[in-house]
Specification:
Layout: H1 5-14, E1 22-24, H2 30-35, E2 40-42, H3 43-46, H4 58-70, H5 72-76, H6 80-83, H7 92-113, E3 118-120, H8 126-137, E4 142-147, E5 154-157, H9 171-187, H10 201-218, H11 231-249, E6 261-265, H12 272-277, H13 284-292, E7 300-304, H14 315-322, E8 327-330, H15 336-342, E9 345-348, H16 353-359, E10 364-366, E11 378-380, H17 386-394, H18 400-411
Parallel strand pairs: 1-2, 3-4, 6-7, 6-9, 7-8, 9-10, 10-11
Antiparallel strand pairs: 4-5
Helix pairs in contact: 4-7, 4-8, 7-8, 9-18, 10-11
Length: about 425
Amino acid sequence: MGSSMTAAFRLQEKLNDWKFYFYLSDREEFQKANQRGLNFFAEWELIENEPVINLNNPAYNELLNRAYLMDRRLSGGASNGLFGQLLPKYSMEKTYEILSSANQKIRHKIEAIKPDACILFSVTTFGDYLIYMYCKERDIPTFIVRGTKIENFVNLFTDLSVLDQNNHISDENSNTVNTFLKNSRKQKIEYEGSLNYKFNLVKVFRSLIISGLVDIKRMFKVSDRHHKASSFKRVYFKEFMFPLRHSLRRNNYNSELPKDYIFFPLHAEPEIALQLNNIKAIRQYDLAIMIADQIPFGKYLVLKEHPRNFGQKPSELYKKLDNHPRIKLVFDSHSTSELIEKSAWVFSLSGSCALESLIASKPILTYVETYYTISGMCEAVGSLDYQSMLDKVSEFEHDESKLISLISQLLNGSR
C-alpha cells in the first residue's frame, strides 16, 4: 500500500505474481487506478460518517495527534507548502472525527485484506501513518521505500527514523562504499541545500497559462480542495514571486564567515521531523535563537537557508535572525560543503546533511534520531542546553569503519 502511484505501478509490474491492494490518498488517482483494474481503498471513503470516539484515551489521542502532525494537509491547510503557515481548514473537533473514523476503518480494512506485507512509498498523510502504525502493531512486515542520499540508490526501511542494524558488509557494497566515499571527498556531494532555480520569464508565463487551465478543469471535477492549493497560485509564487523576493534579499545576508562557528543548515519548511517528533512543533528558527542565546561571545551560529524557503519567509524573520549578535545568516554565497568543513561542529534537525558531515569527519548533533546516527560521531541531542551539547561533541571521535558500516547498511539490498 502506498500513495505514490507511479512507483506503485512499477513495483506491481515487477512483482506480477503478487496480489496488490492499494491505498489512494487523492481523488485524482482514482481514474488511473480504475483504468488499470486495481484493488484499492481510498482516503475519502475513510472519513465518511465519522463515529463519535472516546476522547479520554491518552494513547489513542497521541496516535491521532501524531497522524495529524504528520499530514501537512490537515495541520497546515492548502497553502502550507507555499508559505509554511498553519491555516487548517477544519476545526480540531472535526479533524479528530476525521482521524478517528479513518483509524477505525483502516484497521477493519487491513483485517479484511490480511496482507502478508505492507509497502509505503512515503509516510506523509494521516492514512500512511495510521496504516504504518497498525501494521507494526500487528507485526505485519512493513517497508518504507526511501532514497538513501547515496547517488541514486533507494532502499526498503522498516522504521521511520532508525536504521536496521546489519553489520555484514558484502564485497559488492564494500566496493560501492569505498568508491562513494572517495568521490564524495574529492568532488563534494551536493543535496537540496545547494539547488538553484534559474528564472526564465517565458517559462513562467507558459507555466501560468497551463496552471490556470488546470484550475479551470478541476472546477468541474470532484477533488479534495481542502489540501490542494490552486495550481496557478503555486506557479505564481514558486516560479515568479519567491525567486523575485530572493533576488532582492540574497546579497543582504551573504556575509563573510566568522572564524569560530557552529553550522546549522536550515530545512525546507514545514519540517516533518519536527512535526512528528515534537508535539509542540517548535520552528527551526526558534531553535536557532535558543542555541545562539547560549553561545559564548566570540563564537557564532551560522545558518544557511534552504533554497526551497527562498523568498517564502517574511523579511522580518530574517531581520530578527540577522540582528542577533551571535547569528550569521547566509543564503547561497557559500556551499554546504564549505560551511561544514570550516565549522567547529554541525547541528541539524535531521536529514542528509548529517551524512555529508560524517563524510567530512565533522562531529554532528541532530534534533531527532536519523538513519545516520552513529554513536560517538552523530547523535540526537538529549537537551538543547549548549554546555551539554558541547560536552557530547567533545567526546566524539571519527571512526571510518563505523561510517563504512553505516553506508553499507544504507545500501544493503538497495537498487
